[in-house]
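The methods section describes the discrete structure representation at length, but only in general terms. An entry of this sort, consisting of the sequence and the corresponding backbone structure tokens, reads as follows.
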Amino acid sequence: MSELLIKPLVQAVLVADHVYQDTQTGKFVVCGILGRVHCDRSTVNDATESGSGSVQGRRAVIIPKGGLKWGSPFLYWSVTEVHRTQLFTIRYVQLATDRVMFELPVNLSANDPMQVVQSVIPLPELPMIGGHYALEVIWNNEILGAHRIEIVDTIVEPER
């Protein structure tokens, strides 16, 4: 007799700088949720011709107070209706090209499908290439939830 597949319900998918669990209450604390990150480019070659006919070499970067170098973030996700042990895939995708940057297989277990399973996963350093990305939670080849991140090149002309 084959087991009936019941789709889990993803309640939250967040990518953040820090996630920790309060030891007294058991609550998860999510800090620095990533939505837009400014690309760390100290110099960029520019082949555009300037008005004087010379090639501009480098451009200065305006460095905002936060969101420039964020290292390896964390995934916080919350799922319910998990029957026994289920295999999920966490996938980071560049949306313009549909290129998979990385995938992580993850097993989640619950004794009771009514239980809310919360999990924190340290992620590898995310690629700092300008564009739109999604960190997707996949089960049975179906995307159940995602968190979108925009990587923005923060480059300006130097003062003259």
Q: What stands out?
A: The chain is about 0% helix and 50% strand. The CA atoms of residues 20 and 124 lie 17 Å apart.
